[in-house]
Amino acid sequence: MLVTQFFGVVALISWALFLFAAFAFVDAAVRREDAYRAANKNKKSFWLIILGIAAVVMKLFPILSFLPVIGLVAVIVYMVDVRPAVREVSGGRGGGAVRRLRGRSRASSSDGPYGPYNGRR
After folding, report:
1. Which of 22, 39, 51, 89 has the highest CB neighbour number within 10 Å of its CB?
2. 3-state SS of the chain?
3. Does the residue 118 lie in any domain?
4. Domain presence at residue 54
5. Number of domains in the chain
6. CA nearest 18: which of 49, 61, 47, 48?
7. pLDDT tens digits for 80-117?
8. pTM listed for this prediction
9. 114 lies in some domain
10. Range of the domain at 80
């Protein structure tokens, strides 16, 4: 009975990881190609291939083998590194560079990266 419950939990985790990889694949597919180049990341086709293979591996192989773990690492790299950079460049939801600049007033020549510079006054 305990073994059956364990494999039931493993199956749920496997489905969750597959859905996570499928979400990353769909997210990579809807982003523009030029946003990947502007963010200085690999090409869109590269990420689609990697994330597609990761989703297939997570679906076909049991989570207890090493191949789904490699796929999970690829999905995490996309979600943590590539996706935010591409969203930032393309001005996606969450505030791109254009949205942040709209709210600012005109910058002075003495403004630093964190606001006005007063020169130790």
Report:
1. 51
2. CHHHHHHHHHHHHHHHHHHHHHHHHHHHHHCCHHHHHHCCCCCHHHHHHHHHHHHHHHHHCCCCCHHHHHHHHHHHHHHHHHHHHHHHHHCCCCCCHHHHHHCCCCCCCCEECCEECCCCC
3. no
4. yes
5. 1
6. 61
7. 999 999 999 887 664 444 444 444 555 556 666 666 66
8. 0.69
9. no
10. 2-96
